[in-house]
Amino acid sequence: MLWKRVWSYRALYLMLLPGLLWFLIYKYIPMSGAIIAFKDYSIGKGIFQSDWADPWYKYFQDFYESPYFYKILTNTLLISFYKLIFGLFPPILFAIMLNEAASKWLQRLVQTISYMPHFFSWVIIYGMLLMFLSEGSGIVNKWLVDGGGEAYPFLTSTESFRSILILSDIWQSLGWSAIIYLAAMSSIDPTLYEAARVDGAGRLRMIWHITLPGIRNVITLMLILNLGRIMDAGFEQIYVMYNIQVYDVADIIDTWVFRTGLEQLSYSLATAVGLFKSIIGLILVLGSNQLAKRWGGSIW
Question: Under DSSP, is residue 54 helix (H, G, I), strand (E, B) or coil?
Fold first, then answer.
């Protein structure tokens, strides 16, 4: 009976197969490399012939006892937390605005324009930030100087660097992140809005009582997924944008691992830190999913 059912959906399973193979080859098989975290890895000996570390937690201990541990952990958690909190609501508000737009051609135009930053690399975005915020030739600083003020080092100041990181991240992902909320809104039963109009509800009341409850599960899902990535503060963005003057507020686990682990060929240390991050992320996902079950919005 089961095989008959599988055979009847064979076309769908065949379409699913490339995706499963991609996850198997690029996600699950590489997990076996996590064993490097417990070995004194040598390129010449390979993964399985390298000697075991003594003690087995040697590289986790090295990371914990590093003088930079608390600083880079604090920076990672703070930047991720700011991105999670300040980046959660703008896509929802933007999706609601697009959904409520009366003019469909304007809606499509704004949607298309808002998607574009998602396809920009961080190198391009940093070039745009330099054009606007550079202390010597940035447009904003020229306005400040012309207005009688002084130029401000936005990109090299420890006071403003994190804010620029968060704002540029929100700008880049705003339109793309709104897609999933727009899709969720399109699945809301339109008769609910018609009934609300008959009862005299305005737009704000319909958004509060119909739209937001209708996308509540999607908001919870996105929150859980983002919590799982809270130890990933955005390596590519920070590596491109940071400099030695803002290390105190911008150096995160990934950038430290890149400098001390990969550039100095300490693969075991880099793997141990990566494993540490993955375990913390898994615990956060499991914990937040259990919490979300209380509101009926869990993933599984």
Answer: coil
Q: Which residue has the tokens 């700008």?
A: 171
Report d(CA 88, CA 82) in Å as an integer: 10
CA 131 to CA 140: how far, in whole Å? 9
Task: Provide the sign of the torsion angle of the four alpha carbons 283, 284, 287, 293, taken in this order.
Answer: negative
Closest of 215, 172, 197, 179 to residue 98, by C-alpha: 179
Q: Dump pLDDT digits (tens) for 77-117.
A: 999 989 988 988 999 999 999 888 888 888 888 888 888 99
Residue in this structure with the two tokens 């095989």, named with its chain if needed: 3
Q: How many CB atoms lie within 10 A of CB 80?
A: 19
User: Rounded distance, CA 108 to CA 101, Å?
Assistant: 10
- Confidence (pTM): 0.80
Q: Give the tokens for residue 133.
A: 């915020």
What is each CA distance from 76 to 73, 91, 123, 260, in whole angstroms? 5, 23, 21, 16
Residue in the block written with tokens 């590093």: 66
- Please give the radius of gyration of the chain, using alpha carbons only, rounded to the nearest integer: 24
Amino acid at 22: W
